[in-house]
Write the structure tokens for this entry.
Amino acid sequence: MRQQLDRTVRLMNDAIPDAMVEGYEDLIEGLTLPHKMIATHFTAAAIRANASVIVTLNERDFPEERLAGFDIEAQPS
């Protein structure tokens, strides 16, 4: 199982090398979102990457009023 996961990560990184977002961790503390563990990490990474959209299955975890200040919107996948 671990080998499959490592292979998938390697293939993804090889296919889109600029997709990895780093250095967002310092933004997490200042974010308040319904799903603290997941939504804050995704939102912090989106802010750091200057993204305008977060594509998600759970739009309710990314309230419009919380993302608007960062010029980010959540869209269903």
